[in-house]
Amino acid sequence: MEQYDSSFGRIELTDERLRHIVSFHPEVRSAVKHFTKCLKEPDFIKPSRRDNAVVIFYRAVSSKRRLAIVVKITVPRFILTAYFITNLKLDHENKN
Hints:
Elements: E1 2-4, E2 11-13, H1 15-24, H2 35-40, E3 44-47, E4 54-60, E5 65-72, E6 78-86, H3 87-95
Antiparallel strand pairs: 1-2, 3-4, 4-5, 5-6
């Protein structure tokens, strides 16, 4: 299990959640090294549309892609999943 600091407090990444992430989003395996910075210094944070106890941290990892980390913010706080989005998709979401 890994732990990360954030503006919401300590966030856990359990072994089970890490297995989920690399199984369903294998491209994120190489981006786990960016989790610390994404959670501590996100470009921005958006609330989930489906669950008031979930927020999504976003941070650019290249000019075309952002890392999105989905976090349950009830105690204990933990990462649900992580994936990449394109900046184009994010711009489109913000216009709706």
